[in-house]
Design a protein that fits this description.
Blueprint lengths: L11 E4 L12 H17 L8 H15 L2 H9 L3 H8 L15 H7 L3 E5 L4 H11 L7 E3 L5 E2 L2 E2 L5 H10 L7 E5 L2 H9 L3 E5 L26 E3 L14
Parallel strand pairs: 1-2, 1-6, 2-3, 6-7, 7-8
Antiparallel strand pairs: 4-5
Length: 244
Amino acid sequence: MPALHLNRSSPVWLFDLDNTLHNASHAIFPLITANMNTYLARVLGDGVTPADDAIVNAARAAYWRRYGATLLGMVKHHQVRAAHFLSETHAFADLPSMIRAERGLGALLRRLPGRKILLTNAPLRYSSDVMRHLRLRRHFTHHVAIEAMQVHRQLRPKPSTLMLRKLMRKHHIQPGRCILVEDTLANLKGAKKIGLRTAWVTQYLKMADPIGAARLPKALNRPAYVDVKVKSVRHLARRLHRLR
């Protein structure tokens, strides 16, 4: 696809996928977590006996906190192939039956001015299947999955500011014209550091972080690095004046 060239009044929307455009917490995230635990237990075991839950949970949490994604820790410290990890952890017998999303998302996206890019830390095959099921693919000019988030041949998924800067350069986007729509605060915080606008979607959140190490506070206060907090992406259009 060609690079994006925008006029001064047209924003560029970077949409996250899981727990932003659909409810991944309903069934998809629990299965990914189970698959990931099985994978880590096998890799961290002694070759015969899988590692126990305590070792698995500690490694998953430590790698997520240090690198922003458990995958990066597994690649760096255990020579795991990223493609194999993503394939194994995103294996679903019947993905369509697990997807839950609001109706009218296509109409919503049509009402939002400017180009839309899907920017997801999920793998390409899985995210393509979800977008196809939601019938949203035609609303996005680009689909950037985790496999494409590389800087100097190293995976750099969200919240990497290096990856975001590279994305801006590739598509000739000024950061101030870009709006990141996300459920994950760490990703929004990184984007705000380099000048992007930020919109926090909260309705599908069950935990304060992707590894489930911290529960959400009762009051979801809007951090200073979040320009707009909305329960649903359906509310973005009415808050657009806050994002310009």
